[in-house]
Write a structure and sequence with these properties.
Length: 297
Amino acid sequence: MSKNCFIFIVGLLCSTANLSAVYDFGSFELGAGYRIDRLRWNIVPERHPQVETENRWEDLRSVQVSAAARYTNCYNFLFRGLADIGEIYHGTEKRIISIEDRDLIHARSKANTGEVFDLSGGIGYTFHFLCDRSTISPIVGYSYHQQHVRMNQLLLTRNDFDDRCPRDKHFRSIYHARWKGPFVGFELTFWMLCNIQLYGGAEYTWAHYRGTGRRHFRIEIVDQIKQHAEGRGEVFNLGIRYEITPNFMLSVLGNYQAWRTWSGHERGRLFTRREDARLHVAHWHTWCVSGTAGWFY
């Protein structure tokens, strides 16, 4: 969904909203969930445009804990903060280096550790509908995301490039990806019953991507990279909340994020020589389902 669709939907709904002020309202939630991430990028060296390198991290499973705080004052201004951290316990990495569509080096790994981080803050304005049974809150803010992946048993399964490097040797691999930028979006709520609420939202982010990595093939051969690119991110949330008491609630929330870059730049050292390369594209997708407990105040 493009940013034009976000703006159109928000404007259409807000045009029929109730703008009257309400009382102060806030909530704080703690949660835990299950998350899957997928990250990949591919580059082409400037000196050797016939060579292409692709890295993929797939099925990165993690257990995540999260915290969220919201506050709406009597003038309907909304303040929101979100944070989560996850510990990766399973995943695979695949790396392919090819020359003129002929694969020369294959590397893979099934043993990995790492972390994922997300931090977001924003401010918006809440519009009320249907005698306060439904709300929409256009919001602007800034978000920051990281994925840290460490592979301690990267196995070189095929090597037609350097015979001095054994195929069955295990290597270390480290990669850090960072996505950050301002976003626009909206949040929606709807009280289905007196104590059951359906809620969700969507965001569009103008993102800056930075990736850094290091891989050891031999003591004297180190693949070290630094990547930069501009891109975009799209975030979608949908959940259901059950209000047990006037001050306590339980929720189930689903989250999906899709991020990608446009063409960027990489600077690093491939084997014994420094290389500049063109970053074709980087993709990051994540899915998460979590349960939360919260308090109203």
